Amino acid sequence: MAGRAVASVNGHAQGVRGALDRLYQVSAALAAFCLAAIAGLVVIQVTGRSLGVLVPGADDLAGYALMASTFLGLAPTLRAGAHIRVTLLLSHAPPARKRRLELWCLAVGAAVCAYVGWYVVEMAKDAWRFGEKSTGNLPVPLWIPESVMALGITILTIAFIDDFVRVLRGEAPSYPDDAAAVEDTAVVADGQG
């Protein structure tokens, strides 16, 4: 009976892990799509100008796509270890202290993102409720880009909590160890790699 319970818990954990990994992949794919949309809008604008045709609202849409790609790319960027981190304390801390510092950083990151996420959700709800629209050439209902911002920051909050739980359970965080990566880079740069 105990073996079934452990297998059930492991199966559930693998299911949650798979769902979270898919969430991060979808977020990264949507961010990439938004970057491609920006490129497409730029090509359309350049082509339109060379033909003497003005494409109204394209710059507004490019701005919204930039915002969407930024916010939707935050969680995948965290998991890839591509956010700027100051690891001076972590690189010199013994393992137990390093784990506590990592947990503190992840908790603060999750708390800040949760607060910002809550604020952006409230902002999007207000934009929906009052029918706010952008003031550019293309009157876009502001709840649409604000909802994308809320989605991106919420996924980042989930990623911080995900890594917090991983480190709390004694596992390594999803992002690479910056100190080890810097040391590996230094060895390769010195020609020792």
Describe the structure.
There is one protein chain. The chain is mainly alpha-helical. The chain has one domain (2-189). The chain is 78% helix and 0% strand. It has seven helices and no strands.
List the helices and strands and how they pair.
Layout: H1 2-50, H2 58-72, H3 74-80, H4 88-92, H5 95-130, H6 143-168, H7 178-189
Helix pairs in contact: 1-2, 1-3, 1-6, 2-6, 3-6, 5-6
Uncertain runs with pLDDT below 50, 5 residues or more? none
Mean pLDDT across every amino acid position: 87
Helix amount, in percent? over 70%
Number of separate domains? 1
Q: Alpha-carbon distance between the termini? A: 51 Å
Strand count: 0
- Our Rg estimate from Cα atoms comes to 21 Å
Share of residues in strands: under 5%
Q: Note the run of SSEs as H and E.
A: HHHHHHH
How would you classify the helix and strand content by structural class? mainly alpha
- Main beta sheet: none
Shape: elongated
The number of helical segments is: 7
